[in-house]
Amino acid sequence: MGIGAAMSDYDSIDWFTDESLAKDPYPYFDHLRSKCPIQATAHRGVVAVTGYDEASEIFRDPETFSACLTVVGPFAKFLPLEGDDVSEIIEGHRHELPQNEHMVTMDPPAHTRERALLMRLITPKRLKENESFIRDLADQQLDQIVGLGRCEFISEYAQPLATLVIADLLGVPEADHDRLREGFGLMGGSTGDLRDEGSDYQLNSMEWLDDSFVGYIEDRRREPRDDVMTGLALAKYPDGSTPDIMAVVRTATFLFAAGQETTARMLAQALRYLAQDPALQDELRANPERVPNFIEETLRIESPTKTDFRLARRAATVAGVDIKGGTPVMLLLGAANHDPRRFECPDEFRANRPNAKEHLAFGRGIHSCPGGPLARAEGRISIERILARTRNIRLSEDYHGPPSARHFNYEPTWMLRAMEDLQIEFDAA
User: Fold this and answer.
1) 100-104, 205-209, 217-221, 371-375: the lowest-pLDDT one
2) Residue 1 domain-assigned (yes or no)
3) What is the pLDDT at residue 167?
4) CATH classification of the domain holding 396
5) What is the total count of domains within the chain?
6) Apex CA 209: angle with CA 207 and CA 215, to 5°?
7) What pLDDT score does 191 carry?
């Protein structure tokens, strides 16, 4: 099916392969929701959830809906599943799924143990300490571009900042920062790339990062120091037991991989909206206390993660809709965040929207994004520093076209809402 599918095509269009949906998924979301906020699709046995309340209910029910498919969606090799209760099949084949050793795909009790380990690291005290690093790093990145009057914002500001902020939070030695940046730059396309639909998935695409952290953790267990990495290396589970080194390593690499990509895309969308609204730039400069809500509205209207997946362990009923055991359930976050039952005029960007923070961009329940407070801090500080050091932020018309014909390039992925680039121009303050 070609670009710009007609409304009549939406019943048969394939979310996982059609690039028109990567460019603009919102008409498709509206079509599904208009029929029912929980709707069976024509492909891969998937049930799509576009409703806010329905998605929230499923997020909050891990006993019925397993997170094992979060990364791979309906492409898990052990499908199809048969029977009203497939819990034993899930546990028997979980080790075959991508990222099965990372908490993002785990269910309780394994998830409970690993999340507790991570939250020992992401403490309010550590986040507060990290904020001064974010502010200094933001100014360092801006030092390199403000005088030029233009930049490709994602590669020259957002991605480097997001990667190094997490490196600082974890206590990665500064001498290794450039190596980590290089590693992320060479990782290739996003999970769920439409162009690689038929390729075999990797069980652990972050293996290169695991290897880096093994050395850090082994060193700190041998010779503890007064640093963040030592705290991570010596952290205990809630029951007082000591985690295996790889469990600690994967806690760190999960935070790296989950945070740097989505945060960079969030920042890019924020700059896109600022660049298209000079009055909003002036309003936020004059009222910096409004920046946090501006970030929440950015997360709502352009959620960095479009799709999260759950697998129904057993037959269930949500909002009067029956879901069979073994069904892959696609939670469309971008759709839920545009649900008119929750958000007035949901397709309008309103920087002062009173309930913007109710969005599901960071999920809900036990799998809600643990890095959410960090992403919010990066967004707030970045926007404050960018507005303080520039004036007249605008999109490059040579690249993105005039206001009457804007165009943006999006990565062809069913999982992320990710602009490939954002060319902006500005004046130094």
Assistant:
1) 205-209
2) no
3) 86
4) 1.10.630.10
5) 1
6) 105
7) 45
DSSP result, 182-210:
HHHHTS-SPTTBGGGTTSPPPS-TTHHHH
Tell me the average pLDDT across 234-238: 88
pLDDT of residue 122: 80
3-state secondary structure (DSSP) of residue 380: helix
Rounded average pLDDT over 403-426: 94
Q: Are 329 and 310 contacting, i.e. CB atoms less than 8 angstroms apart?
A: yes
**Which DSSP letter does residue 367 get?**
G
| Residue 221, number of CB atoms within 10 A of its CB | 14
Rounded to whole angstroms, the Cα distance separating 243 from 114 reads: 9
| Rounded mean pLDDT, 411-428 | 94
Tokens of 208: 């290169």
265, containing H or E segment: helix 245-275
Element holding 38 (H helix, E strand) = strand 38-40
pTM (predicted TM-score):
0.90
- Please say whether the dihedral angle defined by the alpha carbons of residues 315, 320, 321 and 327, taken in this order, is positive or negative: negative
Q: What pLDDT is attached to residue 7?
A: 52
* Alpha carbons 178 and 1: distance in angstroms, whole number: 42
More confident residue, 180 or 196: 180
Determine the pLDDT at residue 394: 98
Type of residue found at 120: R
Contact 318, 54 (CB under 8 A): yes
Classify residue 352: in a domain, yes or no.
Answer: yes
Q: Where in the sequence is the domain holding 118, given as residue range(s)? A: 7-428
- Nearest CA to 129 among 87, 73, 171? 171
| Matching residue, tokens 């809630």 | 238
Q: How far is CA 56 from CA 303, 337, 367, 369, in A?
A: 15, 11, 12, 14
Residue 121 lies in a domain: yes
Give every CB contact of residue 212 below 8 A, 6+ residues apart in sequence: 176, 179, 180, 183
